[in-house]
């Protein structure tokens, strides 16, 4: 029950501000998460939107939209849990043609349950999605008014407010109803004054002839507000942006899902800075961080043993280590150590030591892009994008720098102080190309400049030198086989983050949702997209890999025929690895134990174990792998993960008559999984 | 040695060379390594210190050995030792006897006694003005000893060698002998200014390569397929953030216990005060009390009173919208994603397809496991030959590998890119983490090159926001004029060989120099980009400790190299001036007035900024009503 000693570093942060070891101000994840966002979806319920479409997998555009919104809310609720979300259906059969399906609010588990229930219950669903045959000309105006009400009453203090309009109708007011447009314009202006951004998602699908002409109605609606910006706002960027958005290319309806998901986070810069060219030209920029490891972050601690669960608070006492005497925070000073001794400085001196000047991105000169090497990396990088807020014309200057670097294939080297009091570093400014248009739904790289810190000389470590007599250089013959192998495993598109979900994080999210919604843990299994596509590898280079292995062994004068040698090799190898591991436990034992209890993992073996009813001897991991390979539907059995997995697999194996069937099924499912498109 | 140096009227010869010694010792104190030890011998001093015990040579000896004394044995130094040392090293004004050769011999003996047969890196630094005795015979003996004991030798000579002093026959003879000695034992001969210059070069703390983990690198399904192979690989750090000294917290209040003891007056110590060496020990007790932080956890009862609870009774809770969802440790275990330590090959990508900005942090070397000389890894030949084939094939094909990396069983998997690295010392891969889907923030940014948003029927002056071809070519010219490979740029300091070695051989007991295996002849060299905070703080601590003062006047300025790359080089600035002016004129970037900024600020406060429109005298309503 006694107080616990905590890591002084954490406390130091509390007492002395957010500086990490290297004296950099820590840019918190919460810098993003605390920035709240209110997001209101409006779905246009019309004849064409509710028609079932084969292209969308047998559902209507409305249904797809709602499902995507549900996914979006489900992830927002975990990843950005303070954000508000709401849904409005318009054009429905209620008296004023608008229905608030979910009021703008921070959703809770009951809201999610309701929405899910709504999606699953066909009757409720169809009742809600009955479109109104006679559309009121003031429909859009009414909708915007309703949205205004929602934002006003529930999100008056939220800094970011967005209305996402999902529609396939480019002319909600007919030409002979000019009043509709006028009303709508007034309402849109109101919304704009409220600071609400309207982000339309225009759909193209088979029922509206796959065309969408925003000039018929929406250009006017959104352009109005734009002109206003030009007068009031000096930020040229914002104007560009709104224009870009208002003309968002109409979407193919099938891309709707990812487009909606991409709305879940809002953009927010970490800091504002200035690119300086020879002390003469200033280009205002904002700094963003786009790639940071996302981790499941605990919100708080809870004490659950009482009648009601309560959040746990804590007091921190600073005491003298030797005497245990309390010390007040204002009596705490900091000093540097010199060996065992101290050299004392005043707080003023200490902060002076850390000061290197005001924030700047000072260009020192330019180098060919090839100068920056792969191992010139140690700190996370930043993305910079122009803003005209401080310096009018920055966007122009930035774009010129960007385009020039891009076409000359050069990078800039800069001396950078990101924020006040942060430690300077040297960085390469690397231009990134415009988004790959073939993959618009996953714009993992926006066009702009990346600020990549170059490691200090102090950060570089020595090469782990292997003594020359220990080095083995592969003969050309082996390199040749390897070349053959890797050329067949080439993925010419490069690394694409969207292909790889973090399985550990996904599992955590699923688990959290399951606990929150009182679901069974049964659908907790998640597909591990990070595993190699073994079937594809086997198909492409299986034999080559075998050949290579044999050739190496031949080269080393190990008999390749003798399986004994191979097994021996493996045993040795694994025990060798284990011995070198630092956990210090008697490892060889563990290896043996594992060998005894865990059966070999092959189809034959699975079948054998299934027939002798001991399939549970596999690990959960192995079972999961096997199940995912076969794309099996999870059993709904209630119980432990193991029971569930075994039940799933056994149920499936029961349907097969022989090992051959299993092998066939395995081959088929494997055939779909492609390691890459590079076969050609 | 008491004489002043030529051209430096305030620095004695002794000070000129000892500054090198104090700095070297201070670096060792800062490193806090137990095996980083130092001892000092003085020769040709004024008089014996009273109570000095550590003589090896008899003070009554007749010859020149009389004035040789071991000031302190080889040990790990502290601030106190350093201060004591300073008190003992003073220029002798009258004594002119003392044998340099004998002093070096004593040094070798002392090192031999201390190190025995242990694997120390041994080094003797001779600081002299070369005016002592140095006989031909003794240098011959010393030469042998240096070789047999494998001791490094550095000589730093103070004095005005090109002035009248050099006409002194003894000195010029000595210098010749010392130079010869240095040559034959591959030692370093330097003069004081050179040594002082070497102090201006920040020293990199060498870090011994430490293995991160040993894991299998697998090709194909090791569990299932007959066509697979795996080798064992080790990872070693390639780049890591070097730690900057962090300030320790202490209490500013003197404990009552100590003030009762009368050691202090009971008044708060002024922050700026410095306590000399003789006070250091009590200083620690009296004032600089180490602190610890205690945490007490509690929940609030209904009546607002606190109920203390044990740390272990807490359950972590995650936010789910408005709610908090507690997840117990047991559930946490259940939801843990199972993994096995491994590096799995996923596929290969063209090197030119790598988006450099995906690299998310520090890099690691991946090399085949070969074990140590005494404890050889099984299959080390197999491991090395497969890795060699892999890295060579990757280089030939210009491919990098995508891998799935799990450092330790149970750890979360990471996606990594691996680049081949084949160099004389290494045949392996360099690995860096890249983002998962969840790690990417899919922010939307407008395009930088095209005006997608321009609507044809209302031609606005959008060109205002994006540059035209004229501007871009002006930028092209500017970029060319600021090329860092400009032939007139001379790399910083262009350090001569001797000073460079002086620095590097100064490394810690069991480490060599930190090699930077990048060959570039350009102006901005990677090995000259130092962490300014780290070296600033280190040099401040050292200087203040040596000087025994923390006055602002004691605090040294940054060494020149730290500020070398903070501004564009003069040559480039001059070279680009005309181009820059042209660009500046074309770009016409204007600072936004304070008034306009104030308008922006209103929005931040929740008041609509749009109400302030029309400040440039435009009638907003009129424009709006055009439609």
TrEMBL record, chain A:
Protein EC: 3.6.4.12
Region (Disordered): 559-586
EC class (word): hydrolase
Domain Ku: 324-471
Assigned keywords, A-Z: ATP-binding, Chromosome, DNA damage, DNA recombination, DNA repair, DNA-binding, Helicase, Hydrolase, Nucleotide-binding, Nucleus, Telomere
Subcellular location: Chromosome, Telomere; Nucleus
Gene Ontology CC terms, in alphabetical order: chromosome, telomeric region; Ku70:Ku80 complex
Pfam name, any one: Ku
Entry annotated with the keyword DNA repair: yes
Molecular function, one GO term: ATP binding
Basic and acidic residues: compositionally biased ranges: 559-569
NCBIfam families: ku70 (TIGR00578)
This protein's name: ATP-dependent DNA helicase II subunit 1
Native species: Nadsonia fulvescens var. elongata DSM 6958
UniProtKB/TrEMBL annotation, chain B:
Keyword Membrane tagged: no
Domain Ku: 306-451
Keyword list, A-Z: ATP-binding, Chromosome, DNA damage, DNA recombination, DNA repair, DNA-binding, Helicase, Hydrolase, Nucleotide-binding, Nucleus, Telomere
Enzyme's top EC category: hydrolase
Family to which the UniProt record says this protein belongs: Belongs to the ku80 family.
PANTHER family reported for this sequence: KU AUTOANTIGEN DNA HELICASE (PTHR12604), X-RAY REPAIR CROSS-COMPLEMENTING PROTEIN 5 (PTHR12604:SF4)
Name of the protein: ATP-dependent DNA helicase II subunit 2
Organism: Nadsonia fulvescens var. elongata DSM 6958
